[in-house]
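User: Can you predict the 3D structure for this chain?
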Amino acid sequence: MARFNKIEVLSAMANTGMIPVYYSNDVETAKQVVKACYAGGVRAFEFTNRGDFAQEVFAELSKFVVNECPDMILGIGSIVDAPTAALYIQLGANFVVGPLFNPEVAKVCNRRLIPYTPGCGSVSEIGFAQEAGCDLCKIFPAGNVGGPSFVSNIKAPMPWSMIMATGAVEPTEENLSAWFKAGVTCVGMGSKLFPKEVIEKKDWNTISKLCSDALAIILKYKK
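Assistant: Here is the predicted structure, written as structure tokens:
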């Protein structure tokens, strides 16, 4: 079951401004990646449901985080249906993220007071998700649905909206400043934080530095 309540989760996402997004079928690699992010200042981490037996990796990762990264809020991503959401909640997921909006997932998460952040590609989808109790909505794929200008255009008529941008987010000042100036609450970042060659070399210090540098940039522009 979730260790952190809904307010704690959403606050951590908003305060740090960045959620790393990562998948590995290797438990030990996943553990070291999470630990490196934690050392770099990350406090909310999205492991994605993107491979066979991903739930087994997540279960071990969830136990590891309790002992080694006690303030890390671990969530699950790439969730498209309610049964899968329920499975991961039972394994300790503190939040659920999806590439699309599924009202049935919202029901499961709301019942347990767990934040559900669905992927939305239009203002109408965001509105429907908010109606179903989704406090934080993900625009996805963020670069394809309109980039930072899409966010600012949403916030004009719907200023209460909390938006997470995922896709086309990079750990550079030019990129991050554009997203946060547009009004995102936070960003989800994947491959740019975890270069393949860095993972292969097990260079965990580089991942920690990429995270800390990105968080420092975000802090400058967060509203």
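The radius of gyration is 16 Å. The mean pLDDT is 97.
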